[in-house]
Design a protein that fits this description.
- This protein is an alpha/beta fold and 608 residues long.
- It folds into 3 domains: 242 residues, Aminohydrolase, N-terminal nucleophile (Ntn) domain (Glutamine Phosphoribosylpyrophosphate, subunit 1, domain 1, 4-Layer Sandwich), CATH 3.60.20; 174 residues, Glucose-6-phosphate isomerase like protein, domain 1 (Rossmann fold), CATH 3.40.50.10490; 141 residues, Glucose-6-phosphate isomerase like protein, domain 1 (Rossmann fold).
- It has 18 helices and 27 strands.
- The strands form 5 sheets. The protein has an 8-stranded antiparallel β-sheet, covered by helices on one side.
- The longest helix is centred in the last third of the chain and has 24 residues.
- It is globular and about 75 Å long.
- It starts with a strand and ends in an 18-residue tail after the last helix.
- It binds 5-amino-5-deoxy-1-O-phosphono-D-mannitol.
């Protein structure tokens, strides 16, 4: 939820930290701060409520010269948004500074204990206790002091600590919240994710839970919390710094919508062959998959909507019960889970706390776990028996777009592959799917082209009082996702409903100010959707239909039509969502919203 960056090396730390914070800002953006130990050996701290730009202005564009420092961009959990509560936080001596992402659950008890021991805590945050615990434990070695302090913490954390008296050194630790180390030529970094440091180095260490990393220029030593030395692999980030730039688009979201054809191509690379689909990542667990008798998908938000498509396909193609579950609810009433249950955890970031906690429960109960994620080295990959990557490249906008379509695609491929392995689908069915998959990237390009009119359309709908999105079967997840996009970035209320449910209550919301958006692409449920469109029209609602190119009758029932190419029904969600993403984008722009960083949200939700 927050972004952390740290640097130690020969370059100017200040600009590197500010650049890293700008790149990490999508993780949380209610306040930002940096701390530096200057070349003169002084500690410098500047922190401000507001975005990174406010911090940069406060610094007058010129942070003091320093070779070591840490930075933080915040999404508030404990303590309101204020300059004081912004990170970094310091101890009583003002020599130790800490940045933290996560929640120290026992912070109240620790605060009381520290205050009773004479410490003065200045902020309302949980994080500040860490600085004071390190202060108490410090006997000349920062790593030892941090390890000692960590023993006192309950909860989740990624944190980085700096001491004024050890001016080339940073110590970081992670537990259930992401933190990586970047290893450069004579310089080292910490970051919440690779986007902050890929411009400087592509060599990274994905820290595991319980790791403590002690970095100095060009070196990184990883131990466990008791100081036992650990070997960690150095991975290479497969994408460039440019991939995480706007590339001429006004917003990351628009860029990422336009990247979808490429992302779909990349997600299929090496996986879709003439005879069928093959995901080699699941080869090591294929013998266990042979016995699967139930499939449970676990996810949040957009990933949950993608999972609805996956659930339909696992059920249809494998012939076993399959269900999509909201991860945050899963643990309250878990389904029967055993060694024959396949659990598919779907998460773009691979760090969503709810999804990880639910997955852990399934794993404890003996289920087979496959992670579907965009993030190599993320926490979910360690919870799973196998991980299948979206290969979509970095997604920066808070509103997910290209990772939704690649999640749907990857789940289609996963279900097809396992069904094929179990002999549950005919050769002809597989061949038909392969042909449709191969056509998909070009069809996505066409869908973007056809959606050219959404900008003008959005200007006519931007003042609507709210929206009702409906769909059936594979159109239903697209409707839910379309409604979520509108809500997230335009702050307009939007309901996503199974079209058949309209008459059971929500139809009363429809009138001239509440348009009906219907996913009415060619499908077995098309005629029923048309009836729902007519129900809306009869209530004076303006009707926007997403329809298949060549549909001759839809225009009679709709005020506006967004056309998409024809495809197999299981792939139709991918194409249908494209005009809905663009519509949401242009409505938000027309309403003057902060598209890439909508209020109250963060891209990576690492708290439960
Ligand atoms: O990283 P994850 O896929 O686990 O994230 C899950 C949700 O937080 C995420 O999809 C969220 O709903 C997006 N902001 C939607 O645009």
């Amino acid at each position: 939820m927050c972004g952390i960056v740290g640097y130690t090396g020969p370059r100017e730390a200040g600009p590197i930290l500010l650049d890293g914070l700008r790149r990490l800002e999508y993780r949380g953006y209610d306040s930002a701060g940096i701390a530096l130990v200057t070349h003169a050996g002084e500690l410098f701290v500047e922190k401000r409520a507001g975005k990174v730009a406010v911090l940069t202005d406060a610094l007058g564009g010129e942070p003091p010269t320093a070779g070591v420092g840490l930075g933080h961009t915040r999404w508030a959990t404990h303590g309101r948004v204020s300059d004081l509560n912004a990170h970094p936080h310091s101890d009583c001596t003002g020599r130790i500074t800490v940045v933290h992402n996560g929640i120290v659950e026992n912070f109240r008890a620790l605060r009381d204990e520290l205050a009773a021991g004479g410490h003065v805590l200045a902020s309302e945050t949980d994080t500040e206790v860490v600085a004071h615990l390190v202060e108490d434990a410090y006997k000349g070695d920062l790593a030892d002091a941090v390890r000692s302090a960590l023993h006192r913490l309950e909860g989740a954390y990624a944190l980085v600590v700096m001491h004024q008296d050890e001016p080339d050194r940073l110590v970081g630790a992670r537990l259930n919240v992401p933190l990586i180390v970047g290893v450069g030529e004579g310089e080292s970094f910490f970051a919440s994710d690779a986007s902050a440091l890929v411009a400087y180095t592509k060599k990274v260490i994905f820290l595991a839970d319980g790791d403590v990393a002690d970095i100095r220029p060009g070196t990184a030593v990883v131990t466990d919390i008791d100081g036992m030395r650990l070997e960690r692999l150095v991975d290479t980030i497969p994408w460039s710094a440019e991939a995480a730039e706007k590339g001429g688009y006004e917003h990351f979201m628009l860029k990422e919508i336009h990247e979808q054809p490429t992302a779909l191509r990349s997600a299929m690379a090496g996986r879709v062959r003439r005879g069928g689909v093959c995901l080699e990542e699941i080869d090591p667990i294929r013998d266990r998959l042979a016995n699967v008798n139930r499939v449970e998908l676990i996810a949040c938000g957009t990933a949950y909507y993608a999972s609805l498509v996956g659930a339909q396909l696992f059920q249809d193609w494998l012939g076993v019960p399959a269900r999509a579950n909201v991860a945050s609810e899963f643990r309250y009433s878990p389904p029967p889970l055993d060694a024959r249950t396949l659990v598919v955890a779907v998460t773009q970031s691979g760090e969503t706390a709810d999804t990880i906690a639910a997955t852990r429960l399934a794993r404890e109960r003996g289920s087979i776990v496959i992670a579907v994620t965009n993030t190599v080295g993320s926490a979910i990959t360690r919870e799973a028996h196998a991980a299948v990557f979206l290969q979509a490249g970095p997604e920066v906008a808070v509103a997910a777009t290209k990772t939704f379509v690649t999640q749907v695609l990857t789940l289609v491929m996963l279900a097809a592959d396992i069904a094929q392995q179990l002999g549950r689908r005919t050769k002809a069915e597989e061949e038909e799917l392969v042909v449709a998959l191969k056509a998909l990237p070009e069809q996505a390009e066409r869908a973007i082209e056809l959606a050219g009119a959404t900008e003008e359309m959005a200007s006519r709908y931007a003042e609507a009082a709210g929206f009702m999105y409906i769909g059936r079967a594979f159109g239903y997840p697209a409707a839910l996702e379309g409604a979520l996009k509108i809500k997230e970035i335009s702050y307009l209320h939007a309901e996503g409903y199974a079209a058949g449910e309209l008459k059971h209550g929500p139809i009363s919301l429809l009138d001239a100010d509440v348009p009906l958006v219907a996913v009415a692409t060619r499908s077995a449920v098309y005629e029923k959707l048309i009836s729902n469109l007519m129900e809306g029209k009869a209530r004076d609602a303006r009707v926007i239909a997403v329809a298949t190119e060549g549909d001759k009758q839809i225009e009679q029932f709709a005020t506006d039509v967004c056309w998409v190419p024809d495809t197999l029904e299981p792939l139709s969600t991918i194409l249908a969502v494209i005009p809905l993403q663009l519509f949401a984008y242009y409505v938000a722009v027309a309403r003057g919203r902060d598209v890439d960083q909508p209020r109250n949200l963060a891209k990576s939700v690492t708290v439960e």
